[in-house]
Amino acid sequence: MAPQTLSSVNITILGSASAQPSSTRNHSSLALRLSGDVWLFDCGEATQHQIQKSSVKMGKIQKIFITHTHVLILDVGDHIFGLLPVLAGRLNGAGGMADASEDPRLQLDARDTQEEVLPLEIYGPLGTRAYVRNGLIYTHTILGAPYVVHELRFPSDPPDGDHTALPPHACELPGRNIPQADGVWRDVFADALVTVSAAPIHHSVPCVGYVITELPVPGKMDPKKYIPELKRTKTPMSVMSRLQQGESVELSDGTILCGPERRAGRKLVILGDTYDPSPIADLAMDADLLVHEATNAHLPGIDQNTKAEDTYESVEARAKSRGHSTPQLAGAFAKRIRARKLLLNHFSPRYPGDDDVNEQAKKIMQAIGKLAEDNFGGPVICARDLMSFDIEPRR
Ligand SMILES: [Zn+2]
Ligand SMILES: [Zn+2]
Fold this sequence. Notes:
Number of strands: 20
CATH superfamily of the largest domain: Ribonuclease Z/Hydroxyacylglutathione hydrolase-like
Order of helices and strands: EEEHEHEHEHEEEEEEEHHEEEHEHHEHEE
CATH topology of the largest domain: Metallo-beta-lactamase, Chain A
Radius of gyration: 24 Å
Strand content: 15-25%
Structural class: alpha/beta
Bound molecules: zinc ion
CATH architecture of the largest domain: 4-Layer Sandwich
Low-confidence stretches: 99-113
Number of helices: 10
Distance between the termini: 25 Å
């Protein structure tokens, strides 16, 4: 059967805050909609609430990709604290009882599991599986469907094991521990339409970025080039669909018709927190969209909270020392990988996210966008919570 193509690729920002959420920015999460499916990238606190406020459908979430777990200092849990509620909500979770066998809801669960249900897949660095398992077990959460956690293991991580003494949750399926090869995790997921690869990026803790690549799509078809030939040789018109897929077809008189060459698909690069994403640069080349953090900026004269003694250099040094970037660093990386568009996110709480209605916030976000644009030379979008846009196919 001819492979289908993605009917749409859409990005919805569920959270654009850094360490502290505010009334206008939630913790990090981004929903990628591929045709009907929803994939989440990071799942900060209250992501479920943000999903309810957006047009993203909870029941369509198929995969969740975590960039870092943050069990250390600073930014604690801002990319993962919303994962358990989303899992429980998505998989019909219910609070259990200490002795689960007495729970009448188990009757229902047993019936549900007779149907074949694909597990919800979670990808993340070491600790993601243990975090989910411990969280579900210690809260006696019963799920109505299975899940699996695949971990991207760094060379310094143990190659095997689950990183926890607790046995798997009743709904947990065995996940893969994926080792790096040549410094990256290539094709951790692949189907007929897209692949997902990942690579480490520099942050204060182990952190990864993801590259989602649409496989080559059918080229532009010019029917005038084919129809007269098909008519002449009395070839069924159904051959057109094979030509459309880029195949070659031999006609009864020996003529060979070649379908249009397939074109490159869309490429999205979604990074976690970083002060230097260089290790992902090769995988990320020529992205249609780069999502890069810009936690801190130096905005004298625009941001009233700018300290007199601060310079761009001091702000950049401070951002980097905490594992973060400035708009200029994000813009430079976008240029380096020849991205077509740059989306900035993960903003400091001092930059409010209501720039659609608040003049001062608008000034600040425009200035941040401009700083990135000057280094990038391409279009820049500053993330606002619940903002949503499509990534159009390449021409
Ligand atoms: Zn963060
Ligand atoms: Zn972080």
